[in-house]
Amino acid sequence: MERNEKFCLKKPKMNKYKAEINVMPLKALLDPQGKAVTGSMKNIGLPEIENIRIGKHISLELEASDKETARAKVEDACKKLLANQIMESFEFELVEL
Q: What is the strand order of the sheet 15-25 is part of?
């Protein structure tokens, strides 16, 4: 082999995905923010709205070799950082871009 010969390692094809994540307080736990907003509904003329629960919505993009790998990475991110599993539940949708 000559010195100037270059070796080209092929990188695995990476696909781009978008995850839409909803994190909500567990139903068994009190949601003080939701309770406060529910209580305020009658003050603004909407007493028929009740049992409000307030959570958070997270949107992210990632690259992965396939959809199952992407799903595993999003779930890992939710479990380790994005949701407190003691107090919150999460669900997400994943689409390929």
A: 56-64, 15-25, 88-96
